[in-house]
Backbone:
């Protein structure tokens, strides 16, 4: 029996003494990664992509989701399709481009041609096959077992019996609404994907993405930068709360001094920016009334959707997902999301904001990468130094954005998945 | 304008690489004009994509570039503390064209970064717009086009490429 099989939990919890600890074995053990693959990534809804990435019929992207190669395409009727990118004939990947526009997909190995929806159209030497070969569903590219969407966020699941995406998201939907309602005609992914990696366990990025506690120390130079850039800060203090949204989902909602392109003005954006932002704010006011308009415009949200999707509506909006390649290595993909109808001015400053903070070339993310990689190095001592502490804010009625409630929500649900006794 | 030899440009680019490898970043910054830009686009974009409507890794104007340098010289720039060791190799230098008093120059690069017993390799091409003057050049634009698919496994561009 390996060490993992002898475990029945990775958590040490004592509410009365405000103890919440996570075993560091969870970050290093290959058997735990294997359990995560079968009990989390094969069972939970996983983010595939945004509808705006496939603007017109024939548009496609290929990406890895939950260890599978997926072909995500818009067919001739305009419907979105999520297919396993493998030829039903002998298994080769059918589409080998990362993105593009096509009339059909052809497997180069033996020349089978598939429609945009994966239906077999033709294959060389057709007369040597059974007469009804093309009518058989097994001759087509296989669709993923489940494929559903919410507000243009498309998800797939490899468990055909999973609950609906809508039920899975539950109260997350309301936060996605708040984020998407900043646009009048829908949100869009802006061109360009940030693809990077970290030599660290994937769960470290979950924690980091919803960690309001590390900003002042890890991101000291980013805050220095904002202070030295003239007028880069609004007269707003960091303040807000954390919420457990169930099923491992969580959110931080808070005010912060940076500029928000929808819609918190900072002096460096000048009069032009002020006019633009008040126009946007007035639009929100008309559509939603003051309370919701203020929430959309001036609150930041770090939204975590179990197990590996982060949608941060902060100084810009980022969509970020990540997968383990090994216990100590993850691959990350990140995109910028923006209102479709945004003016050139707003789009430019949104992206300027994004790059200041976010991404592997920004003034903040590289230091997160460093922190997470240093944690992973520290875990080499996990046989002796066994536990992580995430007890900050335990027992509080209203946990603050810089407490650790949201991480406890993630870990509790993770633990249930990984150590669930099979029925 | 006097004809400019490729070797003049090479000498300049080699000297730039040396400043970067010796972490003499404030001096390196002085190579840039006041309206300079330094770009590292995402790798799934067209070579001439604009950062105004596309997501890049780095899109610095001169102010942000100076802040990047300031940041990298601090102990609190954790990703580069202690400083990694780097080696910027510059090759295949070509003068593409001369427009007015500016030169368009391209080069190929391989940059090694090593820290904590891990060595990463960055490779691609640099497109420069150089302004000659006083027997040397100043950089008006440096666009660094990575050949790799994203930043796997480097994970970050915490150094200057």
Residues:
């Amino acid at each position: 029996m390996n060490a993992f099989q002898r475990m029945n939990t990775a958590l040490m919890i004592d509410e009365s003494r405000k103890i919440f600890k996570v075993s560091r074995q969870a970050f290093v053990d290959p058997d735990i990664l294997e359990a995560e693959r079968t009990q989390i990534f094969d069972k939970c809804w996983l983010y595939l992509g945004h509808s705006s990435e496939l603007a017109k019929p024939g548009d496609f992207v290929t990406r890895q989701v939950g260890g599978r190669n997926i072909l995500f395409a818009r067919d001739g009727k305009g419907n979105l399709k999520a297919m396993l990118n493998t030829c039903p004939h002998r298994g080769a990947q059918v589409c080998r481009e990362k993105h593009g526009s096509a009339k059909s997909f052809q497997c180069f190995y033996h020349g089978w041609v598939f429609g945009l929806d994966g239906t077999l159209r033709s294959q060389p030497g057709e007369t040597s096959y059974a007469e009804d070969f093309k009518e058989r569903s097994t001759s087509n590219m296989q669709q993923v077992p489940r494929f559903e969407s919410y507000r243009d966020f498309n998800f797939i699941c490899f468990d055909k019996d999973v609950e609906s995406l809508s039920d899975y998201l539950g109260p997350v939907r309301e936060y996605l609404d708040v984020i998407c309602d900043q646009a009048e005609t829908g949100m869009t992914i802006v061109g360009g994907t940030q693809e990077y990696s970290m030599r660290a366990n994937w769960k470290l990025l979950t924690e980091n993405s919803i960690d309001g506690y590390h900003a002042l120390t890890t991101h000291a130079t980013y805050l220095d930068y904002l202070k030295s850039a003239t007028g880069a800060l609004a007269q707003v203090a960091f303040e807000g709360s954390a919420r457990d949204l169930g099923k491992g989902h969580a959110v931080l909602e808070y005010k912060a001094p940076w500029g928000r392109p929808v819609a918190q003005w900072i002096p460096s954006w000048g009069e032009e920016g002020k006019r633009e932002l008040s126009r946007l704010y007035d639009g929100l006011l008309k559509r939603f009334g003051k309370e919701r308009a203020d929430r959309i415009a001036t609150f930041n949200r770090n939204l975590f959707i179990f197990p590996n999707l982060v949608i941060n509506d902060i100084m810009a909006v980022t969509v970020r997902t990540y997968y383990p390649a090994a216990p100590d290595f993850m691959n990350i993909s990140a995109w910028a999301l923006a209102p479709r109808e945004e003016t050139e001015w707003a789009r430019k400053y949104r992206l300027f904001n994004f790059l200041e903070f976010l991404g592997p070339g920004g003034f903040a993310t590289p230091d997160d990468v460093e922190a997470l990689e240093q944690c992973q190095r520290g875990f080499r001592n996990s046989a002796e130094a066994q536990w992580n502490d995430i007890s900050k804010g335990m027992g509080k009625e209203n946990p603050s954005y810089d407490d650790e409630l949201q991480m406890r929500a993630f870990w509790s649900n993770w633990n249930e998945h990984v150590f669930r006794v099979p029925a | 304008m006097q004809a400019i030899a490729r070797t003049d440009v090479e000498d300049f680019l080699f000297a730039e690489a040396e400043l970067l490898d010796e972490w003499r970043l404030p001096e390196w910054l002085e190579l840039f004009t006041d309206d300079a830009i330094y770009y590292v686009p995402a790798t799934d974009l067209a070579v001439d994509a604009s950062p105004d409507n596309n997501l890049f890794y780095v899109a610095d104007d001169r102010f942000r570039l100076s802040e990047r340098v300031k940041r990298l010289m601090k102990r609190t720039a954790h990703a580069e503390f202690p400083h990694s060791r780097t080696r910027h190799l510059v090759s295949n230098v070509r003068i593409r064209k001369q427009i007015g008093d500016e030169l368009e120059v391209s080069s190929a690069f391989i940059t090694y970064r090593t820290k904590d017993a891990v060595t990463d390799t960055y490779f691609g091409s640099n497109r420069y717009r150089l302004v000659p003057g006083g027997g040397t050049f100043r950089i008006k634009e440096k666009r660094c086009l990575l050949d790799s698919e994203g930043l796997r496994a480097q994970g970050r561009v915490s150094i200057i490429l």
Observations:
- The radius of gyration of chain A is 23 Å.
- Chain A has a mean pLDDT of 94.
- The CA atoms of residues 261 and 275 of chain A lie 12 Å apart.
